[in-house]
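User: Hey, my collaborator sent me this sequence without any context and asked if I could get a structure. I don't really work with proteins. Can you help?
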Amino acid sequence: MELHQLQYFVAVAEERNFTRAAERLHVAQPGVSAQVRRLERELGQELLDRSGRSVRLTEVGEAVLPYARAALAAVDGVRYAVDELTGLLRGRVAVGTVTSHSVELPDLLAEFHDAHPAVEITLSEANSDQLIDGLRTGRLDAAIISVGSGTPAGLEIEVVDDQPVVAAVAPAHELAVHPVISLDTLRGRPLISLPRGTGLRTRLDEACAAAGFAPDIAFEASSPEVLAQLAARGLGAAILPGAFAAARGEELRTLTIDPPALRGRLVFAWRAAGPTGPAARALIERARAMLRARPRA
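Assistant: No problem. I've predicted the 3D structure and written it out in structure-token form, which is a compact way to encode the shape of the chain:
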């Protein structure tokens, strides 16, 4: 049994696909398939069910996976111990972020690169649901995501921002004279929102479901700036972070939603358990220190 066989097996198990696992590992797909087959022959059992469109773990594979992850984590631990003793930090860190964020992510990554120039840093952008999945499966080491009042299972967080979720309309909109509206006021009205899977959209969908109706989403866009522009042109009420809407007071009127009061949190998140390399741990520690050192409003 070889270490890279365990690494390939874990990647396929997490990606549910040989091609994606090979891309993640930067190796050829036939090599991944061959090495996993060799591991199965050595163990005398199939670890993966390849009969469907996606690869699934067999019962034996489910039992083996935690031990394979633990073996890889132990190797990372050996490397980390050597790095700590020698003062050399190497490796790779994968970071994700939602489209709009208030944390100084470029500053964080630049400072980290200056301190550890041998570490490869990658940054990708996606919605919160995709980023959370990336953290849980190990594709990402850390990410800035939007969440509600709770912490997603399996993750730890450091709060970046916590503010109300509001509706914003053009000055001529019929709701513009009401600084505070109930969520029910938005029932049946055209709304402008981020797509499904984003934090703000999830907060809206959950609140509307609890109130017994589905929001009428007339326009979707992945950029809050585009949402604000659509609302400013009278196309509906945009669902936005409170501070973002308030900063556009010349073209938008901000409507506080209460009851129920909607709030959204932007957080820096990482996997609570599982293999995390020394480079990722160093980045997480730096990010937490940076966030805790910021002046509180």
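In plain terms: The chain has a mean pLDDT of 90. You can pass these tokens on to your collaborator as they are.
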